[in-house]
Please model this.
Amino acid sequence: MEHTVSAPEPTKVQVAVSDSAAIEWAVARRMRLVEVRQTTSGHLAVMEKFDDWDAPDGFPLIKDGRIDAGDVYLRYLQPGDADLVYECDTDALSRRWALTSPPTRQYAENMARRGYLDWRLSYKSALTIVQSSSNTPVGLIKVRKLVPPGVADVGYQVHERYRGLGYAVHALQMFCTWSHQAQLFHRFELGIKPGNTASVRVAEKAGFVFEGRRSARLVDVGGGYSDELHYAKVITAKCSASVLNNDTNSDVAPAFVSTH
Ligand SMILES: CC(C)(COP(=O)(O)OP(=O)(O)OC[C@H]1O[C@@H](n2cnc3c(N)ncnc32)[C@H](O)[C@@H]1OP(=O)(O)O)[C@@H](O)C(=O)NCCC(=O)NCCS
Model:
C-alpha cells in the first residue's frame, strides 16, 4: 500500500493585500496580520499563526459582500476606489472640516488596495457607498472600534458630484442597522465641527442625538482646535445575526508565498 506524505501547512504566509480568498484562507487557519510589506511584486500582507490566537481585530464578512440601502449600497473597498478616496478627501468642503492633512495619491491607492484586508483584520476600516442604479462609487463610510466593546466611531464622506441626494443619510442609517444585526455594535458615536451644517443634518436624519459639546477635541489642519459636537445613536433591541456570510470558501488553497 502506498503512503503519500503531504507537506505540512505553512504557519506564516505572504498574501497580496487585495486577495480576499488568500486572506480568508489564512484567517481560517488562525493567522493574524503581522505587517504589510511593499515588495517588487506589490503590497504583501505577512500573516502568521500564533498559539494565543484570538478572533482578529477586524469586522465580519458581509453577506454577498453588499449591504443594501435603497438608492445606494455598501461594499468592501476595492483597488479601483483610489480616485474616490483621493477626491473625497481633497475637495474644498472636505478640507474645510478635515482633521488631517490632505492625502497623497499613494495613500489613497494604498487605502483602496488594502480595503478588504483592513475590513477583516484591523480595528478601523471603511466601506464604499455605491449608487445602486449605476454601480458608481460615490462615497465612504468610515468606522473605528472604540475601547468599550460594541461602541463605534463613524464618519462619512460623499463625493462632491453626488451630494444633496440623501446618500449619506441612507448609507449611515443602514450601516448602523447592519452593524447592530451583525452584533458588532450597539452604540455609534460621531463628532462634528461647529458650522458643518450638512454633517449635522446627516447625523440627525440618521437618528443620532446631540449629547454635548466637547471643548477643543478636534484638530484644525491649519493650526488650532475646534470644539466637537458629539452625537450618538443607540440600538439595543434584540436581533439575530442573519446578515453575516459564513461561507468563505477558505478550503480552496490560494496562491501565496509561504515563508515557513
Ligand atoms: C456631510 C456630507 C457627507 C453630506 O452628504 P450628502 O450625501 O450630501 O448628505 P444628504 O444628501 O444625505 O443630505 C443630508 C442633509 O444635509 C443637507 N445638506 C447637504 N449639504 C448641505 C449644506 N452644504 N449646507 C446645509 N445643509 C446641507 C441636505 O439638504 C439634507 O437635509 P434635508 O434633507 O433636510 O434637506 C457631505 O457634505 C460631505 O462629504 N462633506 C464633506 C465631508 C464631511 O464633512 N464629513 C462629515 C465629517 S463630520
Observations:
- Residues 12-245 form a domain with the Aminopeptidase fold (CATH 3.40.630.30).
- The pocket of coenzyme A is lined by residues 93-94, 97, 155-158, 163-169, 192, 196-199, 201-202, 205 (CB under 6 Å).
